[in-house]
Amino acid sequence: METILFLILFPAGISLLLLSIPVKSVRRLIAVIANIALIAGTIHLLYESSGATVRFELESVWIERAMLVLEAALSVYILYMGVRFRRYLVVLFTLLQLGLLIHFETVAAPGIHVVHSLFADNFSIILALIIGIIGSFICLYAIGYIEEYHERHKESEDNRRVFFFLMYLFLSAMFGIVFSNNLKWIYFFWEVTTVCSFLLIKYHEDEESIDSAFSALTMNLLGGLAFAAGISYAGMYAGTLELDRLIADGGAYAVIPAALIAFAGLAKSAQLPFSSWLTKAMVAPTPVSALLHSSTMVKAGVYIIIKVAPALKGTLAAAMLSYLGGLTFLVTSLIAISQSNAKKVLAYSTIGNLGLVVACAGIGTNEAVWSAILLIVFHAVAKSLMFLCVGITEHKLSSKEIENMDFLIMEMPKVSAAMIIGISGMFLAPFGMLISKWATLKAFIDFNPVMAIILAYGSAATLFFWTKWMGKIITIKYGLKNLEKVVSPWEWTTLAVLSFMTIGVCIVFPVLSSALIEPYITEIFGASPSMDRFNIIIIMIIMLGLLTMLPVALMYYAWLDKDYKRVGTYLGGANVDNARFLGSTGAQRTADIRNYYLENFFSEKRLFDYGWVAAVFLVILMLGVVIT
């Protein structure tokens, strides 16, 4: 229990230190030491874990009173911001949450005794490794990034002390979510992540960032309202506030709170119809996008959905949840085709991949949940790498547009190598996302062949937009200036580590599955996934062989100073020189390379509107059937 308490409390203490110390060099040293300690702490937790779920008794009266005071303070702050900026939905949702919780605390809570407020199972340890290792390296990257950010955005007030305070406080809250068994504790940490996200999105303090921050706050407060309702129902009718007991007891009294908590998870993970907040949140500094909106915060949403999935198994609510996840994956993957803004492509891709996780949770079989956890792991590593690469290119090119990434491999060869590894990790064999989708396909076919069709079409769309992006990066033009000389060592270190992790998690995939995921699945479902082990071994041999080729090739071209073979550009035999050609009228024209975005076919507004309507219908069915 000491390690768990350390992981929850230590980042919170560091956040207060970073907020209070004015000397930049001292803050930087503290941040580096804190990152090392968090990585060591999560690895130590993995080392000391027994493989089975461990529950901890903790005297929680004073802790809960402190949480109530802090929750009240957060609510007052949110109410103040809502009134100040005239965001009355924010005010309404906050007041409704307060009313629910006050009623529950005065009527039902005094008679409920929580024995095990903390717990650790293999799934929470996997999430802790993602939070502790990837989160720490993102914070390390942020040291160099935020320096250049303020050099380029002199109109923005320099609040980097607040920035790092919020980043580490967020890590603390995430550890709290994955290790808490007390629903009231989970809810408290849940709301802390919501407020941290709100403040980090509006960091630039311009009109766009403030609007985007309130969009995220509104959606997540709606989810928080559902969470509060779920807690109230669980306490008053199921008679427990312990998550594991609620799920294990099952029955009708577990289904309603599970569905309400799953609704909160949908909002947090930006699934349709709540997806708009995540795409708007891309105005935040890149480390925020990588930490909150790619590798950790949105993972809290799918984490809680997977946790409550056993209570919903076999119900119509679970079926609606799976269809909603499939719909989100298909719609957002198609929308991503029409996007030229790199961060929006990453945002829609994130929403879509989380949709697959939600669909697997809704199916609720042991194979489906096994695939869902693998998707979470592979996605967290590859997508955080992609976000951080885009952060560097945005500063060096002064643009987030993919169309401006022509010849990037010549201007920024090392960043391009990392970006290619990240893109490959998202959709190419033999990387983990493709293996996870293979397992997902099996689960979908067993559940409903329609879901397999959705997976096929959505995956075809992902192939299209990732290939377009990769093609831009690897186009060649000579005589370009190298832009990488001013990239900070903090950023380089993070890119290098995450690049190797993207490859490494594929190599250790069998160990990860057998040591952590399969024991968790067996404990929850009573049986391990029925994947063909012989096929897995064959796949792993192919993966290991191919995985050695990509990094070696990229390192050869990106790091070693070689004389490349230069050939002329093929322009249909009508070349004037290497960049110009003769048009049909005999006039000289300059060759230009542009991607197809097919906006007329994959209009963002039209597809999102259709998807939103369908998703609202599915959510109403999910909640309506359960409540009635």
Oligomeric state as shown = single chain
Number of domain modules: 2
**SSE order:** HHEHHEHHHHHHHHHHHHHHHHHHHEEH
Helicity, as a percent range: over 70%
Give the low-confidence spans. none
Estimated share of beta-strand residues = under 5%
User: Kindly state the mean pLDDT as a whole number?
Assistant: 88
How far do the termini sit from each other?
Answer: 41 Å
Q: Radius of gyration, rounded?
A: 24 Å
For the sheet with most strands, the description reads:
2 strands, antiparallel
Q: List the total number of helices.
A: 24
Structural class: mainly alpha
Strand order of the largest sheet: 1-2
Counted beta strands: 4
User: What global shape is seen?
Assistant: globular
Name a few traits of the molecule:
628 residues; 4 strands; two-stranded antiparallel ribbon; mainly alpha; 2 domains; globular
Verbal overview:
The protein has 628 residues and is mainly α. The chain folds into two domains: 1-312, no CATH class; 313-560 and 607-628, no CATH class. 75% of the residues lie in helices and 2% in strands. It contains 24 helices and four strands. It has helices at residues 2-20, 24-48, 61-84, 88-107, 122-152, 160-179, 183-201, 207-238, 243-249, 252-268, 276-280, 286-295, 297-312, 316-337, 342-363, 366-397, 408-411, 413-427, 432-447, 449-473, 489-507, 509-525, 533-559, 604-627; strands at 54-57, 116-120, 580-582, 588-590. It has a two-stranded antiparallel sheet. Strand 3 and strand 4 (588-590) form a beta hairpin. Helix 16 crosses helix 19.
What layout of secondary structure does this protein have?
Layout lengths: L1 H19 L3 H25 L5 E4 L3 H24 L3 H20 L8 E5 L1 H31 L7 H20 L3 H19 L5 H32 L4 H7 L2 H17 L7 H5 L5 H10 L1 H16 L3 H22 L4 H22 L2 H32 L10 H4 L1 H15 L4 H16 L1 H25 L15 H19 L1 H17 L7 H27 L20 E3 L5 E3 L13 H24 L1
Helix pairs in contact: 1-2, 1-6, 2-5, 3-4, 3-7, 4-8, 5-6, 5-12, 5-16, 5-21, 5-22, 6-7, 7-8, 8-10, 9-13, 10-13, 10-24, 12-16, 13-15, 14-15, 14-20, 14-24, 15-16, 15-20, 16-18, 16-19, 16-21, 16-22, 18-20, 18-21, 18-23, 19-20
